[in-house]
Design a protein that fits this description.
This protein is an alpha+beta fold. The protein has a single domain, classed as Ribosomal protein S16 (S16 Ribosomal Protein, Chain: A), CATH 3.30.1320. The chain is about 35% helix and about 35% strand. The chain has two helices and five strands. Strands 4-3-2-1-5 form a five-stranded mixed beta sheet. The radius of gyration is 14 Å and the shape is flat.
């Protein structure tokens, strides 16, 4: 089974927000999924994504392919997590 980490659209017309899900590649965008690992709200400025990086890494080790947008969200969350860890340690 080919697995993807991708966005699932929710919200109303002109006010979308997304859930980051692990799903079979063959299922539709808003269809069945295996696990919800985060959220993304493009309308909010600044820190607009939350994601469980440990679960994302687990699924990527199992062979899941993240979409381009999810890959950039994971990078952003990792970077902000590193910055938060540095400021608390200082």
């Amino acid at each position: 089974m080919a697995v993807a980490i991708r966005l699932r659209r929710e919200g109303s017309l002109n006010h979308p927000y997304y859930k980051v899900v692990v799903a079979d590649k063959r299922s539709p965008r808003d269809g069945k999924f295996i696990e919800i690992i985060g959220t993304y709200d493009p309308k909010v400025p600044g820190s607009n994504a939350t994601i469980n990086v440990a679960r994302a890494e687990y699924w990527m080790k199992c062979g899941a392919q993240p979409s381009d947008t999810v890959r950039s969200i994971i990078k952003k969350v990792r970077r902000s997590g590193l910055l938060a860890a540095e400021t608390t340690a200082a």
